[in-house]
UniProtKB/TrEMBL annotation:
This is cyclic-guanylate-specific phosphodiesterase. The lineage of its organism: Bacteria, Pseudomonadati, Pseudomonadota, Gammaproteobacteria, Chromatiales. It comes from the Bacteria. Residues 24-278 form the EAL domain. It comes from Acidihalobacter aeolianus.
Length: 284
């Protein structure tokens, strides 16, 4: 009888499930190693204004894995969020970003740039978050008014009152806020109005087909109109072609980020990108 039950149980056992559990456990412990051994890097993607003049750069994390090579955040951030490892990783990001921002201050080409970084909901909800940011700025003597934090709508929806209070504290230091992946979330306009934001970052899914899909163009136009009423700047993400850029300019969007201007690159390579992009802007 017992044997039978066991056999029946076995019928529900899917070896692929065990595989995925093992893989997850490996990834999780690999992530601990990564945190301890400093296997993360920040890459930077340039942001430009309407003339194509560099105005800032977004820091994007990568994992330099000993066997897998450079691993993209899409492959480890979701797991890190689930396990809580995003907290030490996020703290590392903030410190690395502030150290970089400080370095830019001694370079005439870089010192006016804003540095944006991304944070996860869990990080933003942790009570120590404002202190972590303040300490990182102090430790590296980095200018807070050159720092921008990219949030997603989910960060804000999780606990709006808390989020607004934290944003206000950090704004007093001069830090600015951008709402990332804008248009893909669910926030109501009523709600958006209350947020102490500086910038909306239009999600790349609306930019991708903007020159062929009139629906996408209409959405972006509506975002532009709303942002101007609410006093938010707008930046378009995922700009890859001249056509997309011209179309965005024609509807009043004059801030861009995307492969057209540069891919995310190492801090060292960003110096070259910035110089080349700045030169192209002058020649335009
Ligand atoms: P995101 O913040 O929306 O970043 C933009 C993503 O779009 C980046 O992918 C960037 O490489 C990519 N991208 C930029 N321009 C173009 C373009 O013209 N075409 C296309 N197809 N893609 C473009 P990446 O670096 O793989 O990052 C993916 C996501 O991972 C980020 O989306 C962000 O949500 C998250 N992430 C990155 N770094 C961090 C971090 O330090 N902390 C946290 N919590 N999340 C991060
Ligand atoms: Mg972002
Ligand atoms: Mg985005
Ligand atoms: Mg995103």
């Amino acid at each position: 009888q017992a044997k039978n039950t066991a056999r029946n149980t076995m019928q529900f056992f899917d070896p692929r499930m065990q595989e995925s559990i093992n893989r997850r456990a490996t990834d999780e412990s690999d992530l601990y190693t990564a945190i301890e051994n400093g296997q993360f890097e920040l890459h930077y993607q340039i942001q430009v204004d309407g003339d194509g003049t560099p105005t800032g750069a977004e820091a994007l994390i990568r994992w330099r894995h000993p066997e897998r090579g450079l691993v993209s955040p899409a492959e480890f951030i979701p797991l890190a969020e689930e396990t809580g490892q995003i907290l030490p990783i996020g703290r590392w990001v903030i410190n690395a970003a502030c150290a970089q921002l400080r370095l830019w201050q001694s370079d005439p080409l870089m010192r006016h740039l804003t540095l944006s970084f991304n944070i996860s909901s869990r990080q933003f909800q942790q009570p120590e978050f404002p202190r972590i940011v303040r300490r990182a700025l102090q430790r590296h003597a980095a200018p807070a008014d050159h720092l921008k934090i990219e949030l997603t709508e989910s960060v804000l929806l999780d606990n709006a009152e808390h989020a607004i209070a934290v944003m206000q504290q950090l704004r007093e230091l001069g830090i600015r806020f951008s709402l990332d992946d804008f248009g893909t979330g669910y926030s109501s306009l009523q709600y958006l109005k209350r947020l102490p934001l500086d910038q909306l970052k239009i999600d790349q899914s609306f930019i991708h087909d903007i020159s062929t899909d009139s629906g996408d163009l209409s959405i972006v136009q509506a975002i532009m109109a709303m942002a101007s009423k609410l006093g938010f700047e707008v930046i378009a993400e995922g700009v890859e072609t001249h056509e997309q850029r011209e179309l965005l300019a024609s509807i009043g969007c004059f801030a861009y980020q995307g492969y057209l201007f540069g891919r995310p690159v190492s801090a060292t390579a960003l110096l070259g990108t910035t110089e080349a992009v700045a030169r192209a802007a002058v020649g335009r």
